[in-house]
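Lesson 9: reading folded outputs for more than one chain in a single document. The general rule is that every protein is listed as its sequence immediately followed by its structure tokens, and records are never interleaved. Here is the first one.
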Amino acid sequence: MIKTSVNAKANFEITAKGAEISSNGQAVNWSAVQLPTGDYHLLIDGKSFMAQVLKIDREAKTVTIEIDHQEYEVALEEPMDRLLAAMGIKDSGKKKINDIKAPMPGMVLKILVTPGQHIAKGDPVLILEAMKMENVFKSATDAVVKEIKVKERTAVEKGEVLVVLE
């Protein structure tokens, strides 16, 4: 399920099951065709619309579109975004990250940083095995490793602080 916000006002929950799409639990009958101009012709529940993608901001996860000469900014929130928010690393560019928490129970396989180390956004910090999958935790922002609260090959619980950043 993807949560969307249109012009920071209207909110929708979009669910896709195969070729079927629903919005807020209601099935939507739709089709889209890209025209040679790059614009799109949309048919939604029997109504015809012309649409143009004006801007895509992948980092902010927003898309600005124009439908029938009306501009809309659509913000997207995927399940991973909700997981990151639960870990305390949502909106990392806007606020300081103080720690990385375990989003679920698991085992710390490898710690890839040391206290005092300067890390950049995207640098791997540690590897956590959870539900038979290895998850690489990366830094959401430039930071300094203040403290490592766990050891390799130890079990951790959901919400447990793994690494403290400053």
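And here is the second record, again sequence then tokens.
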Amino acid sequence: MVRTCLFCVPCYLDLLKTYRDVPLVKILAGIRRCGKSTILEMLQEDLIKSGVLADHIISMRYTSEDFDDGMTHKEMYKGIKEKMTDGGRYYLLLDEVQEITDWEKAVNSLLKNANTDIYVTGSNSKLMSGEISTYLTGRYLSIPVFTLSFAEYMDFKKT
């Protein structure tokens, strides 16, 4: 587990930049409504600003009504691979991935067999099962995400 300075939003983004293109799955885990999805959206904007083509950023939200209940890890893998149209580097932003049973298998395969940089989010309780250590041992970085402090909230309200 990695600790950032004060767990502020800019600190999360700086940490993610530090580990960009490092062959590890970056896992943002935290309680519901703490800002994990927002951090992914900000990461996507930062990737585009740094020159990554928008069609090489695959952003999937697995709580969406667009996905069937009971989607398998194989369907997840296939759906992502279909979006990868060339041999270039792809950035995978996978939100609420714990909704997919055995998601670790799909993510591990994408990490090993495709030119990807992978970021996932999920809730603490469902995401950090024993399976993650089986399929991603040594290949992931866990980043805890916390809600805003009162001082951070006030700082946002000023703007």
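What the second record shows: The domain at 9-145 is CATH 3.40.50.300 (Rossmann fold).
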